[in-house]
What we know:
Elements: E1 9-12, E2 15-18, E3 21-24, H1 36-39, E4 43-46, H2 51-59, E5 66-69, H3 73-76, H4 86-89, E6 92-94, E7 111-113, H5 117-132, E8 135-145, H6 159-164, E9 181-183, H7 187-191, E10 202-209, E11 215-223, H8 229-242, E12 248-251, E13 267-270, E14 275-277, E15 281-288, H9 292-306
Parallel strand pairs: 4-5, 5-7, 6-7, 8-10, 12-13
Antiparallel strand pairs: 1-2, 2-3, 8-11, 9-10, 11-15, 13-15, 14-15
Amino acid sequence: MRGTFPGVVSVGGRGIFVNGHEVALHHCANILDVPWAELGVDVLIDASGVRENGVALAESPNAVGHYIYTHAMHAAYPERRRNFTTSVAQKVKTVIFGVNEEQFNPQNDRLISSSICDTIALGPVVKLLEGSYGIDSGFLTTLHPWLGDQNLMDGNPNPRRARDDKQSHFSLSRSAVNNLIPKTTTAVRAADAVFPGLSGKIESFSYRVPTNIVGSAVLNVTLERSADQSGLIEMFHQFEREQKWSIISNSTEPKVSGDYSGDEFSAIIDHRWTVVKNNHQLRLVYWYDNEWGYSARVVDIVKLIAQS
Protein backbone atom coordinates (compact mmCIF):
# COMPACT_ATOMS: atom_id res chain seq x y z
CA MET A 1 0.00 0.00 0.00
CA ARG A 2 2.85 2.38 0.84
CA GLY A 3 5.39 0.77 -1.47
CA THR A 4 8.59 -1.09 -0.71
CA PHE A 5 10.57 0.03 2.32
CA PRO A 6 13.82 1.52 1.00
CA GLY A 7 15.97 0.43 3.95
CA VAL A 8 17.58 -2.84 4.96
CA VAL A 9 15.80 -5.16 7.42
CA SER A 10 17.43 -8.25 8.89
CA VAL A 11 16.97 -10.65 11.82
CA GLY A 12 19.57 -11.41 14.46
CA GLY A 13 20.13 -11.83 18.17
CA ARG A 14 16.99 -10.97 20.15
CA GLY A 15 15.39 -8.71 17.61
CA ILE A 16 15.31 -7.24 14.14
CA PHE A 17 17.68 -4.70 12.62
CA VAL A 18 16.46 -1.78 10.53
CA ASN A 19 19.28 0.01 8.71
CA GLY A 20 21.65 -1.36 11.35
CA HIS A 21 19.57 -0.22 14.33
CA GLU A 22 18.36 -3.01 16.59
CA VAL A 23 14.69 -3.22 17.55
CA ALA A 24 14.10 -5.60 20.47
CA LEU A 25 11.53 -8.32 19.87
CA HIS A 26 9.57 -10.07 22.65
CA HIS A 27 6.80 -12.67 22.60
CA CYS A 28 4.74 -12.31 25.78
CA ALA A 29 1.12 -13.11 26.56
CA ASN A 30 1.07 -10.39 29.22
CA ILE A 31 2.22 -6.92 28.26
CA LEU A 32 3.77 -6.48 31.73
CA ASP A 33 6.13 -9.38 31.08
CA VAL A 34 8.09 -7.27 28.60
CA PRO A 35 11.04 -5.65 30.45
CA TRP A 36 10.11 -2.06 29.58
CA ALA A 37 12.29 -0.48 32.26
CA GLU A 38 15.30 -2.57 31.24
CA LEU A 39 14.78 -1.48 27.65
CA GLY A 40 14.56 2.18 28.68
CA VAL A 41 11.09 2.68 27.18
CA ASP A 42 9.59 6.08 28.04
CA VAL A 43 6.58 5.98 25.70
CA LEU A 44 4.76 2.80 24.74
CA ILE A 45 2.47 2.94 21.67
CA ASP A 46 0.08 -0.01 21.70
CA ALA A 47 -1.45 -0.80 18.29
CA SER A 48 -2.47 -4.35 19.18
CA GLY A 49 -6.16 -3.70 19.73
CA VAL A 50 -6.04 -5.83 22.91
CA ARG A 51 -8.06 -4.02 25.57
CA GLU A 52 -6.52 -6.05 28.40
CA ASN A 53 -3.22 -4.28 27.73
CA GLY A 54 -4.73 -0.97 28.77
CA VAL A 55 -6.07 -2.48 31.96
CA ALA A 56 -2.70 -3.99 32.85
CA LEU A 57 -0.80 -0.73 32.26
CA ALA A 58 -3.39 1.33 34.13
CA GLU A 59 -3.11 -0.94 37.16
CA SER A 60 0.71 -0.83 37.00
CA PRO A 61 1.38 2.88 36.39
CA ASN A 62 5.13 2.61 36.91
CA ALA A 63 5.66 -0.11 34.31
CA VAL A 64 6.24 2.48 31.60
CA GLY A 65 6.30 6.27 31.44
CA HIS A 66 3.42 6.95 29.06
CA TYR A 67 1.10 4.47 27.40
CA ILE A 68 -0.69 5.50 24.19
CA TYR A 69 -3.74 3.39 23.45
CA THR A 70 -4.31 3.69 19.68
CA HIS A 71 -7.98 2.77 19.62
CA ALA A 72 -10.97 4.09 21.51
CA MET A 73 -13.23 1.07 21.77
CA HIS A 74 -13.53 1.46 25.53
CA ALA A 75 -15.02 4.91 24.93
CA ALA A 76 -17.10 4.15 21.85
CA TYR A 77 -18.87 1.03 23.12
CA PRO A 78 -19.89 1.19 26.81
CA GLU A 79 -20.89 -2.48 26.66
CA ARG A 80 -17.29 -3.38 25.86
CA ARG A 81 -16.03 -2.12 29.21
CA ARG A 82 -15.92 -5.60 30.66
CA ASN A 83 -12.14 -5.26 30.59
CA PHE A 84 -12.03 -1.49 30.98
CA THR A 85 -13.44 -0.95 34.46
CA THR A 86 -14.82 2.44 35.44
CA SER A 87 -11.77 3.20 37.55
CA VAL A 88 -9.47 2.45 34.62
CA ALA A 89 -11.59 4.39 32.10
CA GLN A 90 -11.37 7.46 34.34
CA LYS A 91 -7.59 7.36 34.03
CA VAL A 92 -7.68 7.50 30.23
CA LYS A 93 -7.02 10.90 28.67
CA THR A 94 -8.33 11.14 25.11
CA VAL A 95 -6.25 13.59 23.08
CA ILE A 96 -7.67 15.01 19.84
CA PHE A 97 -5.61 17.72 18.17
CA GLY A 98 -7.60 20.83 17.44
CA VAL A 99 -9.87 20.03 20.39
CA ASN A 100 -8.07 19.47 23.68
CA GLU A 101 -4.33 18.99 23.14
CA GLU A 102 -3.68 22.18 25.13
CA GLN A 103 -5.34 20.56 28.15
CA PHE A 104 -2.96 17.60 28.02
CA ASN A 105 -0.70 17.40 31.06
CA PRO A 106 2.09 14.84 30.51
CA GLN A 107 2.88 14.79 34.22
CA ASN A 108 -0.62 13.62 35.15
CA ASP A 109 -1.94 12.06 31.95
CA ARG A 110 -0.08 8.77 31.64
CA LEU A 111 -2.71 6.52 30.01
CA ILE A 112 -3.66 8.16 26.71
CA SER A 113 -6.20 7.34 24.02
CA SER A 114 -5.43 8.71 20.55
CA SER A 115 -9.07 8.02 19.62
CA ILE A 116 -9.92 6.75 16.09
CA CYS A 117 -9.35 8.13 12.60
CA ASP A 118 -12.98 9.19 12.02
CA THR A 119 -13.09 11.08 15.31
CA ILE A 120 -9.79 12.96 15.02
CA ALA A 121 -11.15 14.25 11.68
CA LEU A 122 -14.58 15.15 13.06
CA GLY A 123 -13.43 16.64 16.37
CA PRO A 124 -11.66 19.83 15.23
CA VAL A 125 -14.38 20.55 12.67
CA VAL A 126 -17.07 20.27 15.34
CA LYS A 127 -15.13 22.42 17.80
CA LEU A 128 -14.84 25.27 15.30
CA LEU A 129 -18.51 25.08 14.40
CA GLU A 130 -19.60 24.86 18.04
CA GLY A 131 -17.41 27.78 19.03
CA SER A 132 -18.54 30.14 16.27
CA TYR A 133 -22.08 29.08 15.47
CA GLY A 134 -23.26 26.38 17.84
CA ILE A 135 -24.67 23.04 16.69
CA ASP A 136 -28.32 22.23 17.27
CA SER A 137 -28.40 18.82 15.54
CA GLY A 138 -26.94 16.98 12.62
CA PHE A 139 -26.08 13.85 10.66
CA LEU A 140 -22.67 12.40 9.85
CA THR A 141 -22.11 9.89 7.06
CA THR A 142 -18.64 8.36 6.74
CA LEU A 143 -17.19 6.33 3.90
CA HIS A 144 -14.46 4.14 5.33
CA PRO A 145 -12.05 1.83 3.44
CA TRP A 146 -12.16 -1.89 4.14
CA LEU A 147 -10.43 -3.25 7.23
CA GLY A 148 -8.47 -6.41 7.91
CA ASP A 149 -11.27 -8.24 9.71
CA GLN A 150 -13.53 -8.18 6.65
CA ASN A 151 -13.91 -10.99 4.13
CA LEU A 152 -12.63 -11.01 0.57
CA MET A 153 -15.55 -13.28 -0.27
CA ASP A 154 -18.94 -13.67 1.37
CA GLY A 155 -18.40 -15.62 4.57
CA ASN A 156 -19.49 -16.27 8.13
CA PRO A 157 -20.17 -13.33 10.47
CA ASN A 158 -17.46 -12.51 13.00
CA PRO A 159 -18.71 -13.76 16.43
CA ARG A 160 -17.20 -10.78 18.25
CA ARG A 161 -18.85 -8.36 15.85
CA ALA A 162 -22.17 -10.17 16.19
CA ARG A 163 -22.01 -9.53 19.93
CA ASP A 164 -20.98 -5.87 19.70
CA ASP A 165 -22.81 -4.66 16.59
CA LYS A 166 -26.04 -6.51 15.90
CA GLN A 167 -27.05 -4.06 13.15
CA SER A 168 -23.98 -4.52 10.98
CA HIS A 169 -22.44 -7.92 11.60
CA PHE A 170 -24.23 -9.82 8.81
CA SER A 171 -23.55 -7.07 6.25
CA LEU A 172 -19.88 -6.95 7.23
CA SER A 173 -19.54 -10.66 6.55
CA ARG A 174 -20.11 -9.99 2.86
CA SER A 175 -17.33 -9.47 0.31
CA ALA A 176 -15.41 -6.28 1.06
CA VAL A 177 -14.15 -5.88 -2.51
CA ASN A 178 -17.52 -6.13 -4.25
CA ASN A 179 -19.91 -4.13 -2.09
CA LEU A 180 -20.78 -0.87 -0.46
CA ILE A 181 -21.63 -2.10 3.04
CA PRO A 182 -23.91 -0.02 5.29
CA LYS A 183 -22.90 -0.14 8.93
CA THR A 184 -22.88 1.68 12.23
CA THR A 185 -19.95 3.91 13.14
CA THR A 186 -18.44 4.97 16.46
CA ALA A 187 -17.15 8.29 15.10
CA VAL A 188 -19.52 10.43 17.15
CA ARG A 189 -19.71 8.19 20.23
CA ALA A 190 -15.92 8.23 20.51
CA ALA A 191 -16.05 12.04 20.35
CA ASP A 192 -18.16 12.06 23.53
CA ALA A 193 -14.86 11.62 25.38
CA VAL A 194 -13.97 15.23 24.54
CA PHE A 195 -17.46 16.56 23.66
CA PRO A 196 -19.77 15.11 26.33
CA GLY A 197 -23.24 14.66 24.89
CA LEU A 198 -22.28 15.16 21.23
CA SER A 199 -23.82 11.81 20.27
CA GLY A 200 -27.13 13.22 21.51
CA LYS A 201 -26.90 15.96 18.90
CA ILE A 202 -25.40 14.22 15.88
CA GLU A 203 -26.52 10.89 14.44
CA SER A 204 -23.94 8.89 12.51
CA PHE A 205 -23.99 6.28 9.76
CA SER A 206 -21.29 4.71 7.63
CA TYR A 207 -20.51 2.80 4.46
CA ARG A 208 -17.55 0.44 4.37
CA VAL A 209 -16.35 0.98 0.78
CA PRO A 210 -14.24 -1.24 -1.54
CA THR A 211 -11.08 0.87 -1.44
CA ASN A 212 -7.94 0.28 0.61
CA ILE A 213 -7.09 3.74 1.92
CA VAL A 214 -8.50 7.25 2.60
CA GLY A 215 -11.86 7.91 4.21
CA SER A 216 -14.38 10.65 3.55
CA ALA A 217 -17.33 12.10 5.42
CA VAL A 218 -20.38 14.24 4.80
CA LEU A 219 -21.44 16.33 7.79
CA ASN A 220 -24.88 17.96 7.72
CA VAL A 221 -25.72 20.13 10.73
CA THR A 222 -28.25 22.70 11.81
CA LEU A 223 -26.43 25.70 13.25
CA GLU A 224 -27.83 27.56 16.23
CA ARG A 225 -26.62 30.96 15.07
CA SER A 226 -26.86 32.50 11.60
CA ALA A 227 -23.93 31.76 9.28
CA ASP A 228 -22.70 33.36 6.09
CA GLN A 229 -21.15 30.81 3.73
CA SER A 230 -18.07 32.86 2.83
CA GLY A 231 -17.50 33.81 6.47
CA LEU A 232 -17.79 30.20 7.57
CA ILE A 233 -15.26 29.07 4.97
CA GLU A 234 -12.91 31.87 6.02
CA MET A 235 -13.13 30.60 9.62
CA PHE A 236 -11.61 27.29 8.49
CA HIS A 237 -8.93 29.04 6.44
CA GLN A 238 -7.97 31.24 9.40
CA PHE A 239 -7.62 28.16 11.58
CA GLU A 240 -5.36 26.55 8.98
CA ARG A 241 -3.13 29.65 8.84
CA GLU A 242 -2.76 29.80 12.63
CA GLN A 243 -2.60 26.11 13.61
CA LYS A 244 0.54 24.64 15.17
CA TRP A 245 -0.17 21.05 14.17
CA SER A 246 -1.33 19.54 10.86
CA ILE A 247 -4.99 19.40 11.80
CA ILE A 248 -7.18 21.01 9.12
CA SER A 249 -6.41 21.70 5.49
CA ASN A 250 -8.75 23.43 3.05
CA SER A 251 -9.05 22.57 -0.62
CA THR A 252 -11.10 23.29 -3.74
CA GLU A 253 -9.06 21.05 -6.02
CA PRO A 254 -10.93 18.39 -8.04
CA LYS A 255 -9.30 15.48 -6.23
CA VAL A 256 -10.50 11.95 -5.52
CA SER A 257 -9.77 9.72 -2.55
CA GLY A 258 -6.48 8.28 -3.82
CA ASP A 259 -5.01 11.77 -4.15
CA TYR A 260 -5.12 12.14 -0.37
CA SER A 261 -3.12 9.00 0.37
CA GLY A 262 -0.18 10.01 2.54
CA ASP A 263 -1.78 13.33 3.59
CA GLU A 264 -0.95 13.94 7.25
CA PHE A 265 -3.80 16.35 8.05
CA SER A 266 -6.57 15.12 10.34
CA ALA A 267 -9.20 16.51 7.94
CA ILE A 268 -9.01 18.05 4.49
CA ILE A 269 -12.22 20.04 3.92
CA ASP A 270 -13.33 19.97 0.28
CA HIS A 271 -15.00 23.36 -0.06
CA ARG A 272 -16.29 22.60 -3.54
CA TRP A 273 -19.18 21.03 -1.65
CA THR A 274 -19.54 23.45 1.28
CA VAL A 275 -23.09 24.83 1.32
CA VAL A 276 -24.98 26.98 3.82
CA LYS A 277 -28.75 27.06 3.25
CA ASN A 278 -31.09 29.54 4.96
CA ASN A 279 -28.16 30.69 7.12
CA HIS A 280 -28.47 27.63 9.37
CA GLN A 281 -28.28 24.42 7.30
CA LEU A 282 -24.64 23.44 6.65
CA ARG A 283 -23.13 20.66 4.55
CA LEU A 284 -19.41 19.90 4.73
CA VAL A 285 -17.42 17.24 2.89
CA TYR A 286 -13.97 16.30 4.15
CA TRP A 287 -11.31 13.65 3.51
CA TYR A 288 -8.78 11.92 5.76
CA ASP A 289 -6.07 9.33 5.28
CA ASN A 290 -7.31 6.89 7.87
CA GLU A 291 -3.82 5.40 8.33
CA TRP A 292 -1.16 8.03 7.63
CA GLY A 293 -3.01 11.04 9.06
CA TYR A 294 -4.04 9.08 12.12
CA SER A 295 -0.49 7.81 12.69
CA ALA A 296 0.82 11.38 12.35
CA ARG A 297 -1.35 12.46 15.28
CA VAL A 298 -0.04 9.58 17.40
CA VAL A 299 3.48 10.84 16.70
CA ASP A 300 2.32 14.34 17.66
CA ILE A 301 1.23 13.01 21.06
CA VAL A 302 4.75 11.69 21.54
CA LYS A 303 6.06 15.16 20.65
CA LEU A 304 3.74 16.68 23.26
CA ILE A 305 5.16 14.32 25.86
CA ALA A 306 8.73 15.12 24.77
CA GLN A 307 8.10 18.85 25.16
CA SER A 308 7.21 18.48 28.84
